[in-house]
Amino acid sequence: MELFPHDKALLLSEFLILYMIVVVSCRGPVYTPPEIEKLTDHFSRLSVNQGYNVFYGGANIHMTNNGSSAELILDKSSGSGLISKDKYYYGFFNAALKLPAHFTSGVVVAFYLSNSDVFPRNHDEIDFELLGHEKRRDWVLQTNLYGNGSVHTGREEKFYLWFDPTVDFHDYSILWNNHHILFLVDNVPIREVVHNTAISSVYPSKPMSIIATIWDGSEWATHGGKYPIDYKFAPFITSMKGIELEGCIKQQNSSATPSCARRSTSSLDPVDGEGFMKLSQQQMTGLNWARRKHMFYSYCQDTRRYKVLPPECTAK
Is the dihedral of CA 111, 115, 117, 119 positive or negative? Predict the structure, then answer.
């Protein structure tokens, strides 16, 4: 039976509607973030090879575009990682990442600050961890932090993203100063940790390296380890560019006061100005939006895990 043009158009429109229903049901509703000022515009961008050295898995790291970007690869032989050439006190740190597509269960892509190499028993850490997914599930973004070796208290918060992180690059940023720690995705604040009395004993305070890795987290990453990595889908490739490393640099082999990377600041903290001390109204709107629509787990709400919640959860 031959279809007339209007019948073909009707069938096409019905197919598109069905396709959109399937996509939305798989990925969940898609929201547009509010308009927010861009902290990434305040700092200069570097090429990857300007800011980073190989951390491990050198054979699985490919510099691209003359070192301005890089590919971090995970296959059956190894994961891979980059580590900043300098250690930093407070600052602003950014990486634009594009994540592996398709079946990525068990894969972990991390962008984080750590000093575990220097302080193995009382290290500090501030984490972005992107957790892979089984079929038809989205990547999960997990944030966490430790201070002075407080690893027995997990301070995780988990989010669904409002975009597909495998299609294009997106900015993942950490602002860390004496006032607060701020996690941002595409300049939208998703989490703020205020430096107050309740959290001061475990607030990260020692110089840290900035690290980017891809590795096998099969034991825990996807639904508590329910779905491990399937290496028939390897290699898993994360692309990285848009580097920003703006902080007080610790001089090598010295415990002296750090030098500052920014000439314009009168403080040892390059992100200590008024614009970095607290959130603007726009940023507060973005933070509330991200947490209301996209956060699905916070340790401060996990009364099954903690019979007594960590003190910062109930501080006013």
Answer: negative
Contact call for residues 52 and 82 (beta carbons, < 8 A): yes
Q: Which two tokens stand for residue 193?
A: 């940790």
Q: What tokens were used for 107?
A: 């894969």
Task: Name beta bridge partners: 125.
Answer: 114, 146
According to DSSP, residue 122 is labeled S
pLDDT digits (tens, 9 = 90+) for 161-172: 999 999 999 999
Its pTM stands at: 0.88
What b/e sequence results for 110-137 when a residue is b if at least 16 CB atoms lie within 10 Å of its CB, and e otherwise?
Answer: bbbbbbbeeeeeebbbbbbbbbbbeeeb
Q: What confidence category does residue 206 fall into, taking pLDDT thresholds of 50, 70 and 90?
A: very high
**Residue type for position 142:** Q
Tell me if residue 109 falls in helix, strand or coil: strand
Query: Which residues are the active-site residues?
Result: 125, 129
Sheet holding 295-298, edge to edge: 52-56, 80-84, 209-216, 107-114, 125-131, 140-146, 157-160, 295-298
Distance CA 227, CA 78 (A): 19
- Measured CA to CA, the distance from residue 76 to residue 67 in angstroms comes to 25
Please list, residue by residue across 26-62, b when 16 or more beta carbons sit within 10 angstroms of its beta carbon and e when fewer do.
Answer: ebeeeeebeebeebbeebeebbbbebbeebebeebbe
